[in-house]
Specification:
The protein has one domain: Alkaline Phosphatase, subunit A. 41% of the residues lie in helices and 11% in strands. The chain has 15 helices and seven strands. The chain has helices spanning 23-26, 30-34, 70-79, 83-87, 97-106, 108-114, 127-134, 142-149, 157-162, 173-177, 189-199, 212-219, 222-242, 281-287, 294-302; strands at 3-9, 48-50, 53-55, 119-121, 205-210, 248-253, 274-278. It has a seven-stranded mixed beta sheet with strand order 2-3-7-6-1-5-4.
Length: 305
């Protein structure tokens, strides 16, 4: 059975090779760089294919001038609709009604579920998140909104306890130390990567969102961003070791640049990072040029049912 695992890293572009500003250049990334024979994850490397792995600088601007934003970028990924062109602008961070209308129309989660290809958004949220939404103090960002359009209820602490969800920082430790859920299991980064594979078993498309990359970019916190990418590298190492890649495709991608240039507090106009690995990855790689190319390519890869 073909399956797509999507590891979404918010706010990661392909920038310079300068370790003084780019954590992707400064970090020790044996797993991620190892997929492309040790080449840097930078703009200079360009479009590169090594065996089952493909590095693809991905157009986040989609023909609209200005700095790409999260709501329209994530919507383009999860619908195949050029959301910035539809709106005439980049918009974010969270969707307004115009963006929600596009997600209502074309959410990939909904399209796959309607055609017998079950999808799953595997991030869990603490109760205070739901409380803030209920009070009108917080709007759903594009990814959880797209999942709810597909009919999924957002996952709670119960899914964390059951092992059917992942925390945004991978290991579950933050649920204990920052959120006060002292009964949440804590695991290593490699174990969390293996858990991603186990969570995916009943599904054809599983999406996991990691937002800390974007936050650290806005904070210009280069040392923390370096450490965070090294954590991501270990998570991916655990996933690669656990999964069966004969019929599985991994997509690691982003919605816009940001953290790759820690000299700035704003998003960049750099191409977004995309790294593909696994079964028939060359076919998807050939069609990925912009953020709006993912949804159709994923549907094609998964087949009709």
């Amino acid at each position: 059975m073909r399956r797509v695992l999507f590891l979404f890293l918010d706010g990661v572009g392909l920038g310079s090779d300068d370790p003084a500003v780019n954590p992707l250049a400064a970090a020790h990334l044996p797993t991620l760089r190892g997929l492309i024979d040790g080449q840097p994850l930078s703009a200079a490397t360009g479009r590169t294919s090594v065996g089952l792995a493909h590095l693809i600088p991905t157009d986040a601007g989609l023909g609209i001038p200005g700095r790409p934003q999260s709501a329209t970028g994530q919507t383009a990924i999860l619908t195949g609709v050029n959301a910035p062109a539809r709106l005439g602008e980049h918009f974010g961070p969270r969707p307004d009604q115009r963006v929600r209308d596009i997600l209502d129309e074309a959410s990939l989660f909904a399209r796959l579920n309607r055609t017998g290809r079950p999808s799953y958004f595997c991030n869990a949220y603490p109760q205070r998140y739901f409380d803030a939404v209920q009070r009108g103090k917080r709007l759903l960002s594009a990814v959880p909104y797209a999942a709810t359009v597909g009919g999924q209820s957002l996952l709670t602490v119960d899914a964390m306890r059951a092992g059917t969800a992942l925390s945004a920082n991978f290991t579950g430790e933050g649920w204990r130390t920052e959120l006060g859920y002292t009964d949440i299991p804590v695991q290593s980064l490699e174990e969390a990567g293996a858990q991603f594979w186990q969570i995916a078993q009943p599904y054809r498309f599983v999406f996991f969102e990691h937002w800390l990359t974007d936050m650290l970019g806005h904070q210009r916190d280069l040392p923390a961003a370096v450490e965070n990418f090294q954590r991501i590298d270990r998570f991916v190492a655990g996933l690669l070791a656990a999964a069966d890649w004969a019929e599985t495709l991994l997509i690691i991608s982003s919605d816009h640049g940001n953290v790759e240039d820690c000299s700035l507090r704003t998003h960049t106009e750099n191409p977004a990072l995309t790294l593909l690995y696994g079964a028939h990855s060359d076919r998807l790689a050939a069609r990925i040029h912009g953020l709006d190319d993912f949804a159709g390519g994923i549907e094609e890869f998964l087949g009709p049912h």
